[in-house]
Queue: 2 jobs
Job 1
Amino acid sequence: MNEILRLFPAHVSQIIKEQVGDRWNKLQEIRLRLFKPIELNFNDSIEWIKHVEFATDERNFVLNQLSEHSLYRLETELKEGFITVAGGHRVGLAGKVTTTENHVKGLQFITSFNIRVAQQIIGIAEPLIHHLYDESNYCHTLIIGAPQSGKTTLLRDITRLISNGHQVIPAKKVAIIDERSEIAAAKNGVSQFDIGSRTDVMDACPKAVGMMMMIRSMSPEIVVVDEIGKQEDVQALLDVFHAGVTIICTVHGSSLTDVKKRLSLQQLFSESIFNRYILLSTDRKGRFIYEVYDKHNELLATVREQL
């Protein structure tokens, strides 16, 4: 977790390291709020570092580390409200928004940070991968879940299994369009996660553009994208579908019914693109629950994982 610890001054980094201990695989978020204690969110609990106040000097240090001492370099990211750092970790930002003609121009006076810890959990997709395969090919699959429900972690392991092959299922050529550098966490173009031996990555590229670039250049059998939602994403997914390439993607939502109500996604459902859905949630014990449904909304499998 050196990619995260380097964001903090040495004294704060040491305190966080000591409190987390050997629980990095259970840590979901580090939340920083100006003039308040540091909050640690684990899979099953919330803890505070109450004797450390996140003061202005610490805030400025974190910003300098994120921007490499040049906030101008982060102009695009500041408009989006988040920054992806090495290791695939995403840092959300909040503060005063500046606008031009009702469009976000950037963030000023940043007062809150949400460091979302990226995890690779090898094998998490194994109990459900065969439910995504139908006779001779993988199914067009939509993974649905709320923030922090494990969508990207699951998507990453599904990609690894498809790319390597699993049991009697042969390996497939996979293309990841990694707009936010979270799935593969590429550094200088090289993935920092195990995403399989037959996977190619288009890093830091808008999804809609990247999908068609990969179709033309890398002849994938499977296209993988994270967090669809914009109208241009939907049109690109339709183009991928009509090109005969299998789609596996994620979307924010609490249920399939909820997702189907989103206007920007309705064409995907009107053309019956997906024949598998994976719904992600958590129970009271902090376990992650994966439910696999077919295109008729019939439940195929339920998997519970204690991460």
Note: The chain has ten helices and 16 strands.
Job 2
Amino acid sequence: MLPPFTRPWYTTYHGIPMTAHFQDPAPTVALRPLTALRRIEAVADPGSVQPAGYALDEPRPSPHLARWGIAAHDDDGIAVAQATIDGMSVLVAAQDERFLGGSAGANHSEALRRVFEAAAATRPAAVVILAGSGGVRLHEANAAEWELARALAALLDLRAAGIPVLAVGVADVFGGMSVLACAAERLALLSGVRFGLSGPAVIETTRGAGELDAGDAAAVAAVFSAEARAVAGHVDLLGDDANEVRQWIVQHARGSMPFAMWVRERHAALGTRLAADGSEDSSGPQRAPIPANVALLFANVKSADSAGWLARVDDEATWICRPVGDAMLGPRAAYALDAALIVHVLAAADSRTQTVVLVGDSRGHDVSRHAEALCISQYLAHHAAVLALLRSRGVRLVGLLAGVGHSAEFFANVLQAPKLLALADARVVAMEPAAAAKVTRLPQAELLALIEDDPLLGQPVRHFARFAGLDIVPDADPRRLGLFPTRSPSS
């Protein structure tokens, strides 16, 4: 059981007396109409819901919203509690899609990370995420992306430590939160929920209505609906019934499998899906030339796989992952890289400590109907899971942002490394200018200035470095960076 909590919690939650939140739930309760905290109560054993402790009960209003004329909420759109479900101790995090679309701001994402870290310390039977989010909060782009990436790593490290994490989409889930939800051991969606990495409007804006008409309800449902996802085998489908959700949580918390086994089974399933699909990624060429600014890294290396995504440095226990370059990362490329990491790094018999360098430079993840039909969120989550499995086996991961760190590709790849480096002219695109225009509603001249000079929205890597534990380096000389242990640093 989790340790008892002895201090008083909030007296109200969004103006509702707390006594109203802790009444016995009805035998059948629909979750979608409820507040985030009421959803936790509805799936928990009656009377078992308590504050989570570990400072998670303290107010966490965003300091970044006032500049946009938005009133902050004390919980920043996420409720957290400890409880029991069928007698099992659990930690539960429930997102509130009614507050800024459930967007994961910096404090919201930090709360998620702290939930996973608290679970690592207290070892409950499971952690449950009741998800409903549009993804990274664009008003807090750099800070929010960094914190959500840390939460993703903490989730996977928790699973590697043997604690199951289960996710239920109780409202629409998009963006980086879809990747985090897919990193759970099991994912279910309530009937009527939509799920994806890039939403219908984003795909239409990027590729045109011929790719996907965001106003065509049937076309959108065929890709993003919970029912379509379940038919495709991407998720489990649940009715909007707290008892059904409870039973699903109990079943999969008690039937959890070891993390390494899950990674291998998921890898096989994703490969089978690609084989059945048979078509190429729609994101363009997946093997661009090695950028000149990282050419030194790829001198004297040998490709480990036929696709050329992984190379090994001569006479070193060091591996380098090829950057996507001037293309988008699609499911096939992500899967090919993971296959190489599993076959060559995970299975390596070399007793020396191994290093994997994740070189980041891309136009982001594949934004297309085809990628969404394959559930690209699962492929990116799987990549982050493979990296977590390597971390758990003592492999040293180093992320090097050499060009553009763009959206979910950057989030699920380079930002999963404990050691982060970036070239001085690198850029982080947490929010495209078109999205920035919608969020800020500023004139173009002011917007362009923000993109260059604002700490939260600015793309030059120096802005991102203010929030992330990231070292800016002058060049990609591997000797100077200390990436190859047996070589001396250059003078």
Note: The chain has two domains: 12-195+235-256, 265-424+474-481.
